[in-house]
Amino acid sequence: MYKLYGRPGSGSGAVEAVLRLAEIDCEIVDLSRWAEGEPPAELLAVNPLGQVPTLILPDGGIMTESAAICVHLADLHPSCGLSPSISEPTRAAFLRWMFYLAANVYMSELRCYYPYRYTLDPGAADGIRQSALERRTFEWSVFADALGDRPFALGDKLSAVDIYAAMLISWVDDLDVFCERFPALRALYARVAEVPAIAKVWARHGMPV
Ligand SMILES: N[C@@H](CCC(=O)N[C@@H](CS)C(=O)NCC(=O)O)C(=O)O
To answer: Does the beta carbon of 75 sit less than 6 angstroms from any atom of ligand 1?
Structure first.
């Protein structure tokens, strides 16, 4: 049995959606928000960074890193159709965009959310947040340009990339402005959110459906 440490509205949303679509049984532990530097002991015991999502595998192994977890689960359960197999032509794009979103957009989100972690100068936090917001917009524009007018990141078929992107889109503060600027991403979000199993997870995470 898997065990997922998460928090509603956090990076565990995409993992939970993949678990549901892959019909994987999993105990979900919803942690409440914690004060800076004080993650719950239960989480710290399995992830020294004190971050969610953290997944305990059936063999007791531990996985962190939201994108890696999504890829791993989707690969292990090919019937869910969320990851192209290693020999499919779309595999390279699949890996590219999973890693792109995790390494760029998610990281910009973290700089917005925890700007003080990226400086020793308390007066610099505001500037870090502002530049992260600008950088995030640029990163989304790169993703939107690559998406073009295709329904999903890899073409006609939903994959874990779309779920991951939709989770990150839901974190944007000013969604109206964002959707106006990136109509293709608004459409992608809507397509993801209309999948019944995902809509249930999004609702649990307080994400727009
Ligand atoms: N690179 C990690 C980032 C995970 C992360 O930063 N999660 C946030 C919630 S979205 C968290 O747990 N923050 C608590 C903290 O860093 O203290 C991933 O992709 O899973």
So the answer is: no
Q: Is 108 in the pocket of ligand 1 (CB under 6 A)?
A: no
Residues 46, 97 within the same domain: no
Give φ, ψ of 56 to 5 degrees.
-95, 125
What number does the ligand 1 atom closest to the CA of 37 have? 17
Give the pLDDT mean for 95-105.
98
For residue 109, the ligand 1 atom closest to its alpha carbon is: 10
Q: Name the domain boundary from 42, 59, 80.
A: 80
Residues 57 and 133 in one domain: no
pTM of the model as a whole: 0.98
Give the pLDDT confidence of 160-175 residue by residue, as tens digits: 999 999 999 999 999 9
